[in-house]
Amino acid sequence: MEYHFSNAQRAEVLTQALPYIRQYNGKVVVIKYGGNAMINQELKEQVMEDIVLLWLIGIKVVLVHGGGPEISELMQKLDKKATFVDGLRVTDQETMDIVQMVLAGKVNKTLVNLLEMNGGNAMGISGMDGRLIEAEVKDKRLGFVGEVTDIHIDPVTDLLEKGYIPVISTVGCDKEGNAYNINGDTAAAAIAGALQAERLIMMTDIAGVLQDKDDPNSLIREITLEEAEKLCTDGVVSGGMIPKVQCCIDAIHQGVKNVIIMDGRVPHSILMEILTDEGAGTMVRGKA
User: Fold this and answer.
1) Which domains are delineated in the chain?
2) Which residue from 9, 36, 146, 248 has the least number of CB within 10 angstroms?
3) Least confident range of 122-126, 153-157, 253-257, 267-271
4) Are 178 and 137 in contact (CB under 8 A)?
5) For residue 276, how far is the Cα from the chain centroid?
6) Lateral strand order in the sheet of 222-224
7) Which pLDDT value is given to residue 87?
8) What is the phi/psi pair of residue 63, to 5°?
9) What's the pTM value of the predicted model, to 2 decimals?
10) Phi/psi at 75 (nearest 5 deg)?
11) Which residue has the higher pLDDT, 236 or 117?
12) Backbone torsions φ then ψ of 263, nearest 5 degrees
């Protein structure tokens, strides 16, 4: 459905966004991008347009991305069978090579190119560049799946100071130079914490935190740190949402002011969150 707005309506929308433009100008916002929002080409281009718009109004945007579906697609083409332990992909050396090729290569450079084509200045790096993400083995059964041990944030702050949008693939390394596949949510939370970001936006495939996981209309729009922990303890947050909410909690403990879990499949959800009263998804609020 196409909407037609008068010039007066367009001006009204811009006027209402002004307080938020003032609030976020010069502040750091980290966006974790992945899932279905990444698969749909039209939606992907729209997300990149939204990021460039935020950058143009003076927000320091850092884009942290995954690429699980693309990894699986290449593994299938190479006739490489995926193995999982407790729902996590076992990453042997050959799989790690594929992960590095896909994340630090194809996916990262595709996103950089889209941002540039929409008028942004973007620079793609991996967590291995400048030892940005230092890691160690998470679980020997999983092979080269990494646990973040340290963040060396200088490569990101240098890019921000020079006016770039840093685009970060979640591949890390240890002191011996071994490459590791890092969970995107965990990496984004650690990077946002190191930057003391104003906001971390985690784009997912659901509306946010639901009071009833089977009822999409039961969205909880805002929760405190303590309430987030209690929802996990009480079982309201369960399954795959537990690690996502835990990443929100970790990010706030590390100094991020607010974290948003939102449905990345909704068009312009980032702009709705940053530039409108209503917002989007669930906000986990840090201490005032």
Assistant:
1) 25-285 (3.40.1160.10)
2) 9
3) 267-271
4) no
5) 20
6) 122-126, 165-169, 60-65, 28-33, 199-204, 258-263, 282-285, 222-224
7) 67
8) -105, 120
9) 0.91
10) -60, -40
11) 117
12) -85, 110
Cβ neighbours of 262 (radius 10 Å): 24
79: left (phi over 0), alpha (psi -120 to 50) or beta: left
Q: Which residues are known catalytic residues?
A: 32, 35, 68, 185, 244
For 260, the token pair is 């948003």
Predicted confidence at residue 81, as pLDDT, reads 86
Tokens 């607010």 sit at which residue?
Answer: 258
Average pLDDT, integer, range 174-198: 94
For 223, list phi and psi in degrees, rounded to 5. -140, 150
